[in-house]
Design a protein that fits this description.
The protein is of the alpha/beta class. It contains 9 helices and 10 strands. 38% of the residues lie in helices and 20% in strands. It is globular, with a radius of gyration of 19 Å.
């Protein structure tokens, strides 16, 4: 069951040339656009662990609750295989410490979960060694977050366990009740997988999904000596939800058939069709809500603003 539609603050972070809203202004905008909750980017220019102490978190929670938002999720940015070339640097401790601080922030904000990534693969180190490092960091991070009643959610984003079968293997091997998947459709869709089949297999292990839709654009490099073109990997162009190639109605049916109970966030985390204006961002965000209500069976919620 889908328990809330969230807007990801990365969408208004200025990261791809789009307008930058402060975190407080973003929260107000999410309410204005009609979302049930927010997914907060846990780094600058938004919810940086360095910038938001316990008092700032309390004020932020008060703002969220007064605006009537029902759901909050933190979006962390980790790389659990970072800098393997320098083993004297305690990267494992750095990464776990950051997970723990995000868990403290989630606890303070009333957020039940934080999203994290696994790791980018380093070709100089064996895959199994990197897999084991990710497992160890997830176990320790989950154990420490459990003391705060916070769930660690692993998104299929970085190289390690990015495919659906491996992500399921990873969650089962970590074997912690508060380490779950945050399984997204766009990664397996771009990889050529059957997203409905993948969703059914991992739905019961997943507590959140973040969505975006794309059209594929061909790319070519001109070879003057041949008076011809060389095909390059396709470019993924972010488009409104109802214009992309990813079959989200099938994805959400499969998730719910498989026992999914969680939240859904919309992100605009790459250049959008139509440009980087605030008006275009808002159009895409509202189109997502209408798509979820009309095509994916989500019941529109209302919330009071104080």
């Amino acid at each position: 069951m889908i328990h809330g539609l969230l807007l990801h603050s990365v969408s208004y972070s200025g990261s791809w040339g789009q307008p930058l809203l402060t975190l407080e202004a973003f929260i107000d905008r999410a309410v204005y656009l009609g979302f049930d909750g927010v997914m907060l980017m846990a780094k600058r220019p938004h919810l940086s662990m360095l910038d938001y102490d316990s008092d700032a978190r309390r004020r932020l929670r008060d703002r969220i609750e007064k605006r009537g938002l029902r759901k909050v999720c933190l979006a962390g940015y980790t790389n659990l295989t970072a800098d393997l070339a320098h083993p004297e640097i305690p990267q494992h401790e750095f990464q776990v410490a950051h997970i723990l601080e995000m868990a403290r922030a989630a606890h303070d904000l009333g957020a039940p979960s934080i999203r994290i990534f696994t790791g980018y693969e380093d070709g100089a180190v064996s895959f199994q060694r990197q897999w084991d490092l990710v497992i160890a960091a997830l176990r320790e991070g989950a154990d420490r977050a459990a003391e705060l009643a916070v769930t660690i959610g692993v998104q299929n984003h970085h190289d390690i366990a990015v495919d659906s079968a491996s992500l399921r293997d990873l969650i089962l091997e970590v074997n912690r009740p508060n380490c779950r998947a945050m399984f997204d459709a766009w990664a397996p869709a771009l990889q050529g997988d059957d997203i409905a089949e993948s969703a059914r297999k991992i739905a019961s292990l997943s507590v959140h999904t973040t969505v975006a839709n794309y059209q594929k654009r061909p790319r070519y490099r001109y070879l003057p000596a041949l008076v011809n073109y060389e095909a390059l990997p396709e470019r993924a162009q972010a488009v409104p939800m109802d214009q992309g190639f990813i079959d989200y109605p099938a994805f959400f049916r499969a998730l719910q058939d498989g026992g999914f109970n969680g939240t859904v966030a919309y992100e605009m985390c790459s250049p959008l069709l139509g440009g980087a204006t605030l008006e275009n961002l808002d159009r895409h965000a509202v189109a997502f809500l209408e798509f979820m209500y009309s095509k994916c069976g989500v019941v529109r919620q209302t919330h009071a603003v104080s």
